[in-house]
Amino acid sequence: MSDCLFCRIVTKEIPSSGVYEDDVCYAFRDINPAAPVHVLVVPKKHIGSLDEVSKADAAVVGHIMSVIPAIAASEGVAGGYRVVSNIGPRAGQSVKHLHFHILGGRDLSWPPG
Ligand code: 5GP
Ligand code: ZN
Fewest beta carbons less than 10 Å away: which of 42, 62, 68, 80? Predict the structure, then answer.
């Protein structure tokens, strides 16, 4: 989707600070970090949000979950971080391409706002 910001980041049409990449996903630093470590992990395939994940996408989402611990470890936050995916406007989703926030490097309160 050429009008999707994260699709354009995946293709490197828009620059980003990448921390991990493979055939299925790309991880890069959030431009407006909410914590000392704030990485976004996105599927290379355009999926609007977790609300739009089909059974056929299950392997994509599972793969992303499987690489998050290594990304967190490489960022120095193994064992103490949060993974968040905002879905829809009421949850504050601002980019309509599925992404998982990895947040860490400070104490994280609960519940979130
Ligand atoms: P959401 O609010 O949809 O859950 O998360 C979107 C995230 O994307 C926000 O944390 C925002 O700071 C980040 N973001 C928005 N535009 C860009 C961009 O152009 N580059 C990067 N690296 N992050 C972005
Ligand atoms: Zn997209």
Answer: 62
